[in-house]
Amino acid sequence: MGKLPVTVLLTLLPILLFSQNNNHKFISQDEKELNSTQILNKTREKNNYSNISNQRTNKPSNNEYDTIIDIDKNKYKTVQIGNQLWMAENLKVIHYQDGSEINLVTDNKIWANLKAGAYCWYNNDSIHKNLYGAIYNFYAICNLHNLCPMGWHVPTDTEWEIAVNFLGGKNIAGGKLKEIGLLHWKNPNICANNSTGFTALPGGYRIGNSGSFYDFGSVGFWWSSTEYNSEYAYLRYINNNNSSLKKNFYVKRFGFSVRCIKDN
């Protein structure tokens, strides 16, 4: 091949240099958009944006499991906490697992003197059923009829403790269980992030020695199935002014909420 004219070489030189510097690769618009998306995703991962997004939602999708149904056909969402599967809603059943009826007690004096299984709604108003569930005395928790759906049970104090330890200890576990915001919790609802999807609500309680109702909107209480002695039993509670999940024991005639846990 003969030599090319200088004018042709000058015309071809920019093209040859561009091809050499860009490895002869043409990038389509689709590839550009794909690369931009990949870069954006890597940047989001690097800055942990996905975790921030999860913290702003009440129920992280990676924790939520299928629903279960009790004997009264009430449906409950469930969440995984460590190796445990919990109800994500308070129990609202009015029949035991064997079909026998749980006593509905509205009278304060009867409630204060009863030593048999009983339930009520907060302030004796069934409007609270769907959101806050029922309030049960301990005698409804611990008997041969079984309160929770088949394959589930009221958690022992040890099972509560396992959940607390998995969540980093009692001082911060409550915040990881509480529903976010002030829709149901009274101000300030400190450190509530509901990162577990447990969605703890402040359903209050019923006093065992008077039958009166207290702390709705401020405190949530949940029985364990573990007795302290013949008159008292253990429970856990969360309030609106700190992030703790605290342990205590109360008279068995008191009325508290219940969350069931799946059998091993």
Brief digest:
The protein is of the alpha+beta class and 264 residues long.
Descriptors for this entry?
single chain; 264 residues; 2 domains; three-stranded antiparallel beta sheet; 28% helix
How does this structure look, described?
The structure is a single chain. Helices cover about 30% and strands about 20% of the residues. The protein has a three-stranded antiparallel beta sheet with strand order 1-2-3, with no helix packed on it. Strands 4-5-6 form a three-stranded mixed beta sheet. With about 260 residues, it is of the alpha+beta class. The longest helix has 18 residues, at about 30-45. The chain folds into two domains: about 5-45, no CATH class; about 60-260, no CATH class.
Low-confidence stretches: 4-61
Strand content: 15-25%
Looking across the biggest beta sheet, what order are the strands in? 1-2-3
Radius of gyration: 29 Å
Please, how many helices?
8
Profile the largest sheet. 3 strands, antiparallel
- The SSE string, one letter per element, is HHHEEEEHEHEHEHHEEEEEE
Through-space gap between termini: 84 Å
What value does the average pLDDT take?
83
**What's the domain count?**
2
